[in-house]
Amino acid sequence: VQQNTDTTTGTNATEMQLKAAPIDGLTVGASYFEFGGQSGEQKNDQNAESGAYYATYATGPVSIGYSRAHKAMHLIDNHDDTTSTTAIEDYDQVNYSIAFAASDDLTVSYERETSEANKLNDTSVEQESSAVQVAYTMGGMTLAVSHASHDNNAYVTGDNTDQTLFAVTMAF
Length: 172
What we know:
mainly beta; two-stranded antiparallel ribbon; globular
């Protein structure tokens, strides 16, 4: 646990982190970060804070991961944006991934992320992304392709994109 005070703004912060590897191949962890109020503020509706936990497991050619995070925004009493469609109270995020090393030269992976913006007007928008990647290595050269789909970019309903990237990297 670490407590810090920023002398220029008067903001207090508390940070906690925990990480463990209870069995071979498994790593688990959690973190929490809280910002205290600014000096001179009378009262807050909500202090800014964030926290997350995760687990990863690798065995042989397969590795998987999962994480969940929450971030609350700093809100001051009598906040006047309660009807605004853009004022965010907090975010909730979930990520998971799986990777498979088919050989020493070929890997395939998939990942998915969902993040929900919960607004002060009691509505929410979920941003969702998923991607598949394939990489093949030959000596000092790697050929890679990634295809991703993003829905509700920047938490804007209907702002969707697909993206395909090709990459060639060489080591000399």
